[in-house]
Amino acid sequence: MHNWRIKLSLFINYFVFAILLNSSGIAILQVQNNFGISKKAAAWIDPCKDLSIAIVSFLIASYIAKFGYKRAMLFALAIITAVCFIIPNTPGFMSIKLLFVAVGSCFALIKMSVYSTIGIVTRDSKEHISLMNFIESFFMVGNLSLYFIFGAFVDNANPQSTSWLNAYYLLGGLCLIAFFLLLSAPLDESAAKVEDGKPVSPKFIDMFKLMSEPIVLAFIFSAFFYVLIEQSIQNFLPTFNNKVLLLPAVLSIQMGSILAGSTALGRFFAGVILKKLNWFYVIIGCLLLAALLVIIAMPLAQDEAGKNIIHGWLNAPVAAYIFPLIGLLLAPVYPAINSVILTSLPKPKHGIMSGLIIIFSAIGGTTGSLITGYIFDKYNGQTAFYFTLVPITILIVSLFIFKRLQRKPVMEPVINPDVIH
User: Fold this and answer.
1) Exposed/middle/buried for 226, CB within 10 Å: 0-12, 13-18, 19+?
2) Rounded to 10 degrees, what is the CA torsion of 140, 31, 312, 269?
3) 417 part of a folded domain
4) Which of 224, 245, 286, 414 is 20 to 30 A (C-alpha) from 76?
């Protein structure tokens, strides 16, 4: 298998950081139970993560290729390993926010490096979009795992217990394994440091030059609204299950795994399907079906909430199973549009473009979390999730513009016209 060791390393890195990054939804629920924090205040956990991602990406994106993708990933893994071993010994709302500042900062380095490395280890745009979806599907496998990892540490009998923080000891161990796996994987980064036969000299202004291109602006707009939708649902699904559907805390967390599982499955199938079908038509169809699912699931949640005493998965309301399936439909969007924009650019620009992807994704995630937290507090959970219909509509419109501006991929294999096949 071509570059199999570094590809395996990318999968493992993304898996570990998926668990760390997306534990914010569980933290949002648990700080309400542990420390009496309001939903509106708890929603600020996500900005601690997302703004850190955005700031680090903004400062580092232009220079990460020079620093080295592998070196950046090793640095991030070393830092977050130490933080994971410290956090269970310092419970408190402020320490939880600082945890997610560290997670966000380190994830910025990981994501920029992973996205840029994909361009190095793939040979054409079809392989690029396929590997992007498979790596993102593994990200969601990590996201799926976190609900059961944290569910095992949550004390249902004592809502004030901070035993759930002990899960970070396990995550610290996984980060340590990921560190040594990456250390042993070879990576030739020379292709990212040379453009048109000349060494690339990174400049901070390069990011702003790239942002001025119409296709990049259209992409940024699309990525922002996609992540706004995704994080609105993901971060508040455990809270929705607990406060609206009246599921116990552990079950609320565990049933959030349906969203992660359906997203992972959707991205896995997208990795196969998008090798054969046009990405644009697949994504537009998925978004229309996602909007329909919201319209179907929310009335069910209103009708079924609190009707029965819920002891486990088998007697949970139907809405707890149906609504998280939206992940299956939203799944292909993000990896596909990221792949399209990256393969439209030369490899030395992938680091900067990855930084822009991360910055505006983080801003979108923060915006989605704060808006959802506000609507949830001011009105109710159904209204908060009905709101997703607005950004879904905007995203569909922006994707039409993005498609019209799409360039021919620069990663397509060169074919000699003199050779007869």
Assistant:
1) buried
2) -10
3) no
4) 224
CA distance 363 to 355: 12
* Secondary structure of residue 195 in the 3-state scheme: strand
What is the C-alpha to C-alpha distance for residues 400 and 134, in angstroms, rounded to an integer? Answer: 25
Q: Radius of gyration over alpha carbons of the chain, in Å?
A: 21
Amino acid, single-letter form, for residue 73: M
Domain span at residue 182? 4-405
The set of residues, in sequence order, having a beta carbon less than 8 Å from that of 260 and lying 6+ positions away, is: 22, 140, 141, 143, 144, 146, 147, 327
- The CATH number of residue 192's host domain is 1.20.1250.20
Tell me the β-bridge partners of 23.
none
Give the pLDDT confidence of 111-162 residue by residue, as tens digits.
888 888 887 877 777 777 778 878 877 887 887 788 778 878 877 777 778 7
Which of 12, 256, 242, 26 has its CA nearest to residue 144?
256
Q: d(Cα 296, Cα 304) in Å, to the nearest integer?
A: 13
Report d(CA 409, CA 93) in Å as an integer: 46
48-54-58-64 Cα dihedral, nearest 10 degrees: 100
Exposure of 291 by Cβ count < 10 A (0-12 exposed, 13-18 middle, 19+ buried)?
Answer: middle
Residues 275-312 pLDDT 10s: 788 889 999 999 999 999 999 988 888 776 656 555 67
Q: What is the pTM of this model?
A: 0.74
Question: Measured between alpha carbons, how far is 397 from 111 in angstroms, rounded to an integer?
Answer: 27
Q: What angle do CA 335, 145, 364 make, to 5 degrees?
A: 40
Domain assignment present for residue 139? The answer is yes
